[in-house]
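Extended Data, record SDR family oxidoreductase
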Amino acid sequence: MKVKLKPLQDQVIVITGASSGIGLVTARQAAEQGAKLVLAARSQDALRQLCEEINQNGGQAIYEVADVSQAADVQRIAQAAEQRFGGYNTWVNNAGVSIYGKLEQVPIEDMRKLFETNFWGVVYGSLEAAQHLKNKGGAIINVGSILSDVTAILQTIYSASKHAVKGFNDGLRMELEMDGAPVSVTLIQPSSIDTPYTMHAKNYMDREAKHGPPAYAPETVARAILHAAVTPERDIVVGGGGRAFIGMKRWTPILFDQYMEKAFAKQEHADEAPRPLAQNGLDRAAGSLRERGNYPGYTRETSFYTEAVTAGSPALRTALLAGAGVALAAWLNRSTIKSQLGKRRQ
C-alpha cells in the first residue's frame, strides 16, 4: 500500500525528548509550520513553559511528563494525544541519554539504564505508534545516529544502543511493508550536533566531554525530521561529515579505527575538569529548554549534504555518499602519513 503523508499543518505530531536540543528545536519548527503537538519528556517545568510559548504564539501543544523507559508512560503519551486531538499522524522517538568513558569504568547498571531509554524507549514508542497508524497511515521517525553505523570510542554503549535502534527500525519497517500498512518508518542519523548532549551525559572521563568536529546545529536535524514527516524516507544522515565517517568505516575500517584511537578520543576531551558525576541526564531529568550545548568550535548551521539528498534523486544520493567516503579516506590517509613521518623524524 502506498504511503501518503499529510502536510505538516494538517498533522498531530508526538515528540519525545522535547525539553531540550533536537526535540525542542523540532517542536518549535513544527509549531511554526502549523502542526499540533504532543510533547513528552521528564522535565515538567520545561514542558509547561514550552507549551505556553507555543500556545501564546497561536499554536496548539499539550505535554505529558513521561519517562520513555517505562512502557506505561509511553502509553500515557498516546492516550493524551487521543484525548486532546483524536490521535496523531507522526510519532518521533527522540529521547536519549549518553555515557562517556572506557567500558571498564562504566557500571553495568548504567549501561542497562541507557539501553532502557535509548533502545526500549524507541521500541515502546514505535509499537504504540504502529498499532495506531497501521490502518490510518502516518510516519514513525526514530532518531538514531551516525553511531548506528560506526562506533565512537569512549561512547561505546551509546553507539551500541544506536546500532540496536537501527536493527529494530529496519525490522519494523519490513514487517509493516509486508502487512501492507501505509506507514513510513524513518531512521534519522545525526552527526555531532551542538546540543546539551555532552552536558547531560554521564561522564567517567577525567575531562569534561565535548563533541568531535564537525558539529552541526540542531536545526539541521529538525528540518530532516519534519521532511520525513511529510515525505517517506528510509533513512537520512544529517551532516556530510557524518556521512563521510560512515563511508570511511565501510571502505577502510582499519584506518577508521586508527583515527578513532589516535585523534577522535582526544577531540572528545574538553580542557576543563568534569562536572560532578551526579550531574547527569542518565539518572535524572535534565531538560531546561536549552537548544545548544557547549561546543567550542564553529557550528555548521546548514548541512549542504543533507539538504541535497532530501531534495535530490537516488543517483545524486549515491554520488554524494561515494564522494564523501573517498574524501574522508584521502584526508585520514594524509593525516596518518604525516603522523608516521613525524615519528620517523623524532
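Summary. The chain has one domain: 8-340.
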